[in-house]
Amino acid sequence: MLPDPTAPLLNSMKLCLSPRRIVRSAPSRAANFVAASTFLAFFFLPRTLLSPARAVEHVVALRHGQVRRLTGEALLEAADGGLLFSTDDGSLLPLPAKSIRSRSSDPKPLVPLDADALGRRLLAEMPAGFQIYHSTHYVICYNTTRSYVKWCSSLLERLQRAFLGFWDKKGLKLHPPEQPLVVIVFGDRGSYSRYAKRELGGAVGSAIGYYSMATNRIAMYDLTGVQALRRQRGGRGSRHDITALLSQPAAVPLVATIVHEATHQISFNSGLQVRYADNPVWLSEGLAMYFETPDLDSSSGWRGIGNVNYPRLRRFRKNAANGKVGSLRSLVADDRRLKTPITAVDAYAEAWAWNYFLIRWRTKEYVAYLKMLAEKPQLIWDKPVTRLAEFRTAFGDNIQALEADFVKRMSRLK
Question: I want to staple 259 with a disulfide (CB 3.0 to 4.6 A). Which of 83, 204, 292, 404 is the partner?
């Protein structure tokens, strides 16, 4: 699940974007998730392609009640001065005009922070007691045990390699993240909840981890309670302890959550998807569920890609037997069923099923569809008729025949 950080920007101004709108080439595109739930009218003036070497901007803005000094570049500028601002630490922040205190620029090109600089930035931001762990592609800021963080980093690195390799074999050339990806691991749920509440609001109680489209970070807490285990036993909370805890059936949704959110993060940092573009939720969430299924026989908790997600399959089949499965058109046309609490669980099962079916049996068309979505501009949300037309462009006009094949194959899945 991903929070919607566009709401403050979208609710604060009726955007009339200036010609500073930037169209990025695919290799340098920033990444993302979830279309905003607030639908306002956007009136765009002509867009211009700017030189990749743009001046660095320095913005002082109020965020979450604190004055922040930000270094980066403005990707979008509204007529009233509001910005979609890309920072040197990978954040992509909607800044309403009223939040901006000052703005200046210099001729130096923007240089993304490296792993060491990211680590220093995180330690300055987080409370006392946090440490930094570096792996090949991740910077993990944590105040739990080092053993748990090493377990997490091993899982994340394995997932990223497999993710890029998977799409390469499918004919979709992605790129590694442009800078190390940030993960914050809290030692307990209470401290995690206090941090996450500013983005998740009331939903924080149901989220054990999340990927933030705004900060480009994953936040979670130690799902094993290994710190408590260490205190009780007087031990270190070893990797053996962690593996034992996470190899139990009850740990399936815990490990799945880590993989799910990490899949979102990789998707929006490899060119597969674009932050703040109209990425249909059925596809974004279904794709993450396709990757999330853990393998409890593996010491890392996760072994491969595309295993049957049996909890989702069981719910889908139960709904199908009771005539409760919605139409493909309603799933594709808009995100309402996935965002409405009373229908979300069932719609998520359908989203997993459709992504599983399309990736496995309509691979070429699915890849073409992903490429089409990756070219979408930021902060423009399509009408249902446009979404349906794009789906038909990729998968053909005969939706009824596609649904029939889907039902037949999913009924035979074991």
Answer: 292
Taking only the tens place, the pLDDT of each residue in 180-220 is 999 999 999 999 999 999 899 888 888 889 999 999 999 99
Residues 6+ apart with CB under 8 A from 251: 223, 245, 294, 296, 301
Contact 205, 193 (CB under 8 A): yes
pLDDT at 41: 26
Residue 374 has what DSSP assignment?
H
The one-letter amino acid code at 317 reads: R
Q: Whole-number mean pLDDT of the chain?
A: 82
Instruction: Please write the tens of the pLDDT for every residue from 289-333.
Output: 999 875 545 555 455 688 888 889 999 999 999 999 999 999 999
Residue 203 in any domain: the answer is yes
Q: Domain ends where: 63, 90, 109?
A: 109
The answer as to whether 58 is a domain residue is: yes
- 122 and 266 share one domain: yes
The rounded distance, in Å, linking the Cα atoms of 137 and 162 is 13
- 78 with 15: CB under 8 angstroms? yes
| Ordered DSSP codes for 234-285 | TS---HHHHHHHHTSGGGHHHHHHHHHHHHHHHHTTTTSS-TTB---HHHHH
d(CA 383, CA 171): 29
Residues 6 or more apart whose CB falls under 8 angstroms from that of 85 comprise 57, 59, 61, 70, 72, 73, 74, 75, 91, 92, 93, 94, 95
What's residue 292's pLDDT? 85
